[in-house]
Amino acid sequence: MKLSIYGKGGIGKSTISCNLSIAFARRGQKVLQIGCDPKHDSTFTLTNFLIPTIIDTLQAKDYHYEDIWPEDVIYQGYNGVSCVEAGGPPAGAGCGGYVVGETVKLLKELNAFYEYNIIIFDVLGDVVCGGFAAPLNYSDYCLIVTDNGFDALFAANRIVASVREKARSHNLRLAGLVGNRTAQRDVIDKYVEYCPMPVLEVLPLIDDIRISRIKGKTIFELAELNNELNEICDFFLNIADQLLSIPEGVVPKELMDRELFSLLSSFYLDTNSEDFLII
């Protein structure tokens, strides 16, 4: 299974990706996580350091693919999860999607791309240009991380549109939403009522997860020292179990921007929230 994880910038995709990778590994899967962000910190909590990127390695070898070995670009992280960072072009130059394509090309050259049961693409922010939608070309499922707020759901709706477009030419489905750092889910539920899709899990704001990221470790690793954290691990194991069941998924149809504004603003009006002022 190949899975692309998208969502609004700063919503917690990398933290969820790393813990989900461990959850899959705990279920006996051979896992590769590919960071698709130029700042190359997706796999930091798995390896405890910023691993060299694909693009850096290719440049160092003068783009001679035949001179690159798997150990040059694939690093072993916690619980046996393999880690790759695609990297990216300099700021304001080049296309990140091109780098993702080169990463997949190199992994295929190394006969590594098809060696894994699970490949997770952890994708930069809510960018849905053709370049950063590139991981969807190689994925069976897309998973969108959101919270219960306007901005994250607006970004999710744009990503939904990208999934729908890619599904025209690829065997791609939206696995669903994962709510993150949210105590309530009323706005999420209202959105999926009008734009039907599964909600796989909703994680509350858990300080231990934030602390684990600061410490450069997954919550699973910290749970080895504190059994009380196993309850938090169960959130990620639940997501992994649902995905391992090979869900049917959906080809979603996004809401038009004005429809989405109208739908979400009703919540802010009802609660007199100042968030409505952004409209």
UniProtKB/TrEMBL annotation:
Pfam families from the UniProt entry = Fer4_NifH (PF00142)
The protein's GO terms of the molecular function aspect are: 4 iron, 4 sulfur cluster binding; ATP binding; metal ion binding; oxidoreductase activity, acting on iron-sulfur proteins as donors; oxidoreductase activity, acting on the CH-CH group of donors, iron-sulfur protein as acceptor
Q: What class of enzyme is it?
A: oxidoreductase
Which free-text remark accompanies the cofactor? Answer: Binds 1 [4Fe-4S] cluster per dimer.
Report the record's Gene Ontology biological process terms.
light-independent chlorophyll biosynthetic process; photosynthesis, dark reaction
Q: Name one GO cellular component term.
A: chloroplast
Q: Which cofactor does it need?
A: [4Fe-4S] cluster
Catalytic activity, reaction form: chlorophyllide a + oxidized 2[4Fe-4S]-[ferredoxin] + 2 ADP + 2 phosphate = protochlorophyllide a + reduced 2[4Fe-4S]-[ferredoxin] + 2 ATP + 2 H2O
Which pathway does this chain act in? Porphyrin-containing compound metabolism; chlorophyll biosynthesis (light-independent)
Q: Does the keyword Plastid apply?
A: yes
Residues reported in the UniProt entry to bind ATP: 10-15, 39, 180-181
The record lists [4Fe-4S] cluster as bound by 95, 129
**Where does this protein hold Mg(2+)?**
14
Task: Give compartment(s).
Answer: Plastid, Chloroplast
The UniProt record lists the keyword Nucleotide-binding: yes
Q: What is its EC number?
A: 1.3.7.7
Q: Which UniProt keywords apply?
A: 4Fe-4S, ATP-binding, Chlorophyll biosynthesis, Chloroplast, Iron, Iron-sulfur, Magnesium, Metal-binding, Nucleotide-binding, Oxidoreductase, Photosynthesis, Plastid
Please indicate which superkingdom the organism of origin belongs to.
Answer: Eukaryota
Q: What does this protein do?
A: Component of the dark-operative protochlorophyllide reductase (DPOR) that uses Mg-ATP and reduced ferredoxin to reduce ring D of protochlorophyllide (Pchlide) to form chlorophyllide a (Chlide). This reaction is light-independent. The L component serves as a unique electron donor to the NB-component of the complex, and binds Mg-ATP.
The record, for HAMAP family, names: ChlL_BchL
Family membership, please give it: Belongs to the NifH/BchL/ChlL family.
Assembly, in brief, is:
Homodimer. Protochlorophyllide reductase is composed of three subunits; ChlL, ChlN and ChlB.
Identification of the protein by name: Light-independent protochlorophyllide reductase iron-sulfur ATP-binding protein
Its ancestry begins with:
Eukaryota, Viridiplantae, Chlorophyta, core chlorophytes, Ulvophyceae
Q: Give me the gene this protein comes from.
A: chlL
